[in-house]
């Protein structure tokens, strides 16, 4: 497929465009010429000589001059447009215009227009922002425009998309960490570990041990056998499944699940791994907007303003939830 994006395609598109314009002029020139037809009587025949249905004849008239002028002007306009604007393959045009550039300018204009609104909150601390109704109202609008598509309008998420209202955080719930997550995004990756754990039965035993860490229903014998298998997981998830917010490794001992709960879901995760992406918003929002949005997200959790959340996996709670780790 790499050949499809080669420079040759730009040349091909430019050539087709130029040849098309030239072909229009050639066609116009050919159609504008009046062919003189001599009839059987030796006199000039005002028709083309074509006869349909016995007596229908096509008159041999040239194209109207006004029509020809408009056609030529259209071709000239097209040529000038292709010189000034992009249209000939990868050529950007003499004006340097692009739709992406226009979009960037519109974003900058919009940011300049709303900057004074958010600048009023720059001097406030995270605790003050969480408690400020005006800041929360602005944060809610930002959340609905940029975050609700994944996390839901109420912030409760869904399977594979973290719940932001349960006070349970994967990368840490401090204001600075939330700002970092929004601005730079996150790359969460669980590598496939099935081969390192062993065979099918060993992975099943590990799954039951993981279930036992949170007090979920499990097979006690299988869990005991899977304890030693957990050593391969402890480097990220901790010896007791307490997780590691510096690595983004979720807790396994809290009954909070993001990608599926139960033996089958854990086995699938161990065998297949997982790669989740939280997009970065630093280029879409100003630092002031990100602070206000982060304060709103803090306020979604069930805790007092300024109280730090413990680091673990954002998701719905309970072993019966459809949202799982």
TrEMBL record:
<feature type="binding site" description="axial binding residue">
    <location>
        <position position="278"/>
    </location>
    <ligand>
        <name>heme c 1</name>
    </ligand>
</feature>
<keyword id="KW-0375">Hydrogen ion transport</keyword>
<dbReference type="Pfam" id="PF13442">
    <property type="entry name" value="Cytochrome_CBB3"/>
</dbReference>
<dbReference type="InterPro" id="IPR008168">
    <property type="entry name" value="Cyt_C_IC"/>
</dbReference>
<comment type="function">
    <text>C-type cytochrome. Part of the cbb3-type cytochrome c oxidase complex.</text>
</comment>
<dbReference type="GO" id="GO:0009055">
    <property type="term" value="F:electron transfer activity"/>
</dbReference>
<feature type="transmembrane region" description="Helical">
    <location>
        <begin position="12"/>
        <end position="31"/>
    </location>
</feature>
<feature type="binding site" description="covalent">
    <location>
        <position position="233"/>
    </location>
    <ligand>
        <name>heme c 2</name>
    </ligand>
</feature>
<dbReference type="GO" id="GO:1902600">
    <property type="term" value="P:proton transmembrane transport"/>
</dbReference>
<keyword id="KW-0249">Electron transport</keyword>
<keyword id="KW-0479">Metal-binding</keyword>
<dbReference type="InterPro" id="IPR004678">
    <property type="entry name" value="Cyt_c_oxidase_cbb3_su3"/>
</dbReference>
<feature type="transmembrane region" description="Helical">
    <location>
        <begin position="66"/>
        <end position="85"/>
    </location>
</feature>
<feature type="binding site" description="axial binding residue">
    <location>
        <position position="151"/>
    </location>
    <ligand>
        <name>heme c 1</name>
    </ligand>
</feature>
<dbReference type="GO" id="GO:0005506">
    <property type="term" value="F:iron ion binding"/>
</dbReference>
<dbReference type="InterPro" id="IPR009056">
    <property type="entry name" value="Cyt_c-like_dom"/>
</dbReference>
<comment type="pathway">
    <text>Energy metabolism; oxidative phosphorylation.</text>
</comment>
<dbReference type="InterPro" id="IPR036909">
    <property type="entry name" value="Cyt_c-like_dom_sf"/>
</dbReference>
<feature type="binding site" description="covalent">
    <location>
        <position position="147"/>
    </location>
    <ligand>
        <name>heme c 1</name>
    </ligand>
</feature>
<keyword id="KW-0677">Repeat</keyword>
<keyword id="KW-0813">Transport</keyword>
<feature type="binding site" description="covalent">
    <location>
        <position position="236"/>
    </location>
    <ligand>
        <name>heme c 2</name>
    </ligand>
</feature>
<keyword id="KW-0349">Heme</keyword>
<dbReference type="InterPro" id="IPR038414">
    <property type="entry name" value="CcoP_N_sf"/>
</dbReference>
<comment type="similarity">
    <text>Belongs to the CcoP / FixP family.</text>
</comment>
<dbReference type="Pfam" id="PF14715">
    <property type="entry name" value="FixP_N"/>
</dbReference>
<dbReference type="InterPro" id="IPR032858">
    <property type="entry name" value="CcoP_N"/>
</dbReference>
<feature type="binding site" description="axial binding residue">
    <location>
        <position position="190"/>
    </location>
    <ligand>
        <name>heme c 2</name>
    </ligand>
</feature>
<dbReference type="GO" id="GO:0020037">
    <property type="term" value="F:heme binding"/>
</dbReference>
<dbReference type="GO" id="GO:0016491">
    <property type="term" value="F:oxidoreductase activity"/>
</dbReference>
<feature type="region of interest" description="Disordered">
    <location>
        <begin position="304"/>
        <end position="325"/>
    </location>
</feature>
<feature type="domain" description="Cytochrome c">
    <location>
        <begin position="134"/>
        <end position="301"/>
    </location>
</feature>
<keyword id="KW-1133">Transmembrane helix</keyword>
<keyword id="KW-0406">Ion transport</keyword>
<protein>
    <recommendedName>
        <fullName>Cbb3-type cytochrome c oxidase subunit</fullName>
    </recommendedName>
</protein>
<keyword id="KW-0472">Membrane</keyword>
<feature type="compositionally biased region" description="Low complexity">
    <location>
        <begin position="310"/>
        <end position="325"/>
    </location>
</feature>
<feature type="binding site" description="axial binding residue">
    <location>
        <position position="237"/>
    </location>
    <ligand>
        <name>heme c 2</name>
    </ligand>
</feature>
<dbReference type="GO" id="GO:0005886">
    <property type="term" value="C:plasma membrane"/>
</dbReference>
<keyword id="KW-0408">Iron</keyword>
<keyword id="KW-0812">Transmembrane</keyword>
<keyword id="KW-1003">Cell membrane</keyword>
């Amino acid at each position: 497929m790499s050949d499809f994006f080669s420079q040759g395609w730009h040349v091909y598109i430019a050539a087709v465009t130029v040849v098309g314009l030239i072909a229009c002029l050639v066609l116009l020139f050919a159609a504008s010429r009046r062919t003189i037809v001599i009839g059987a009587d030796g006199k000039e025949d005002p028709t083309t000589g074509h006869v349909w249905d016995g007596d229908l004849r096509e008159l041999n008239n040239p194209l109207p001059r006004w029509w020809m002028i408009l056609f030529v002007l259209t071709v000239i306009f097209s040529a000038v447009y292709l010189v000034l604007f992009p249209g000939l393959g990868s050529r950007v045009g003499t004006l340097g215009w692009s739709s992406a550039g226009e979009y960037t300018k519109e974003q900058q204009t919009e940011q300049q227009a709303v900057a004074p609104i958010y600048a009023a909150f720059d001097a406030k601390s995270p605790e003050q922002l969480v408690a400020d109704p005006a800041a929360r109202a602005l944060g809610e609008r930002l959340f609905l425009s940029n975050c609700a598509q994944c996390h839901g309008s109420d912030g409760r998420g869904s399977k594979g998309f973290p719940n932001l209202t349960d006070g349970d955080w994967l990368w840490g719930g401090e204001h600075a960490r939330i700002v970092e997550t929004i601005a730079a995004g996150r790359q969460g990756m669980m590598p496939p570990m099935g081969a390192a754990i062993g065979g099918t039965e060993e992975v099943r035993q590990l799954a039951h041990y993981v279930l036992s860490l949170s007090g979920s229903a499990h097979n006690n014998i299988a869990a005991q056998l899977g304890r030693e298998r957990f050593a391969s997981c402890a480097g990220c998830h901790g010896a007791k499944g307490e997780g590691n917010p510096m690595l983004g490794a979720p807790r396994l001992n809290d009954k909070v699940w993001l990608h599926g709960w139960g033996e089958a879901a854990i086995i699938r995760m161990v065998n297949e791994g997982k790669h989740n992406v939280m997009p970065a918003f630093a280029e879409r929002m100003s630092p002031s907007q990100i602070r206000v949005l982060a304060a709103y997200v803090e306020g979604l959790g069930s805790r007092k303003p300024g109280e730090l959340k413990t680091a673990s996996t954002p998701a719905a709670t309970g072993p019966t939830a459809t949202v799982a780790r």
